[in-house]
Structures are given as structure tokens and as C-alpha cells.
Amino acid sequence: MEQFVTLYMKLFFMMTPFFVLSVFLVLSKNLIKSEKKKIILKLGITVAITSLIFLLFGKYIFSLFGITLDAFKIGAGTVLFLSALDMIKGGGEVPDTDNKRGTDFAIVPLAIPITVGPGMIGILMVIGAELSAPKDILIVCLSLIAAVISVMGVLLISDRIQRLLGQQGLEILPKIAGLFVSAIGAQIVFSGISGFITTSLAG
Fold first, then answer.
1. Which secondary structure element, helix H or strand E, spans residue 175, and what is its range?
2. Rounded Cα distance, 12 and 154, in Å
3. Does the predicted TM-score (pTM) go above 0.85?
4. 36-78, pLDDT tens digit by residue?
5. Distance from C-alpha of 3 to C-alpha of 60, rounded to nearest angstrom
6. pLDDT at site 1
7. What's the angle, vertex CA 50, arms to CA 46 and CA 53, rounded to 5?
8. Among candidate residues 4, 12, 45, the one with its CA nearest the CA of residue 143
9. Mean pLDDT across the chain
10. I want to staple 196 with a disulfide (CB 3.0 to 4.6 A). Which of 9, 70, 78, 170 is the partner?
11. Torsional sign, CA 139, 144, 149, 153
């Protein structure tokens, strides 16, 4: 249970739910409630399928290109850390998307690359490469699905959150989440460096 909760929290924050919320509120401001629900459902399905693909098949990409897991950890962790810094600095920009196109923005840019960005993809591949036991694979997949459902839940109550926190609150939340994400990124980088050094010494 502890492993499930830890993975769930990591994946949830790596999906940058509060930045996704900010973008969603801007892009969906002219849509009715039923249209918003369709967007959220489409987003959830896209994020779940895309994430599971990278999670379960990422290790084959390592084999194909001859990339070591430690090297990829350093790269993916760095990308995630830099993405977190953008969140903290408030550098994330809302894409210029035409709201009249209905649910077009559910997949691009809301699902990809905002929810499932380069950092998220890299970390999913790292997690997937370390999986071997069927029980561990099941726990990670369930954690991922739970994180996706949670992001959808945040968007479903987006209007309430906006009224409760106001504009300033919505600007602060991504910065706080960015601190957690930066820590996760740094931890993954250190893990990759440690593994690289250990392998080099052993060799």
C-alpha cells in the first residue's frame, strides 16, 4: 500500500495538475458544462493510454538505441527538474488555441505536451525499465490510473477551485507543486549519477 501511495503522489505531481488546471480554465472558458466533461474524458483517456505505452514499452527503446538506464535517469531527471523550475518561475505559457474548435485542445496541447510532457515521458520510461515482477507492474499501472483519475477530478471541480482560490491562488499552486516536482527530478538525477559511478567502479 505504501508503494502504491508513493508512486501515486509522484505521478500525480509530475502530471503538473495545477498548471493543467490553469490552462484548462483559460481554454474552456467559453464552453458549456457538457463540453467541458467531454474534454476531461478525452484528456483522461489520452493521458492514460500514452502514459501506459511509455511505461510498458520504454525499456525496448533503451535496448534499441543502446542507452543505459543510469544515463537516461540523469537526462530525464534533468528535464523534469528544468520543467519544475519553469513552473516555480511561472514561465509556463497558455497555448494560443481557438476555443471554437470544441474538444480539439483536449489531446493537443492539453494532454500532450502539457499533462504528459518530456519530463513525464522520461520518468515513465525509467520506472518501466526497472519493473520486472508482475506485482510491481500492476501496482505502478494502478498508481498511474489513479493519478490520471485524480487529475480528471481536479478539472471536474475546476470552477469551484477557481471561485475558492481566486486568480492569485491559481498562480501560487503550480509554484508549490513545482517544488515537489523539482525534488523528484533531483532525486532521479542523483540516483542516475550514483548508479553510473557504482557501475564504473565495478567495471
1. helix 158-202
2. 11
3. yes
4. 999 999 999 999 999 999 999 988 888 888 889 999 999 999 9
5. 25
6. 85
7. 145
8. 4
9. 90
10. 70
11. positive
Residue 203 included in any domain: no
Report yes or no on 201 lying in a domain: no
Residue 110 · residue 39 · CB < 8 Å: yes
- Tell me the HSE value of 39 on the side-chain side, using a 13 A CA sphere: 29
Q: Quick check: is 136 in a domain?
A: yes
Is 202 inside a domain boundary?
no
Number of domains in the chain: 1
Parent domain of 22: 2-196
Report yes or no: 171 and 86 within 8 Å, Cβ to Cβ: no
Length of the chain: 203
Instruction: Give the whole-number percent of the chain exceeding pLDDT 70.
Output: 93
Q: Identify the residue whose cell numbers are 511509455.
A: 54
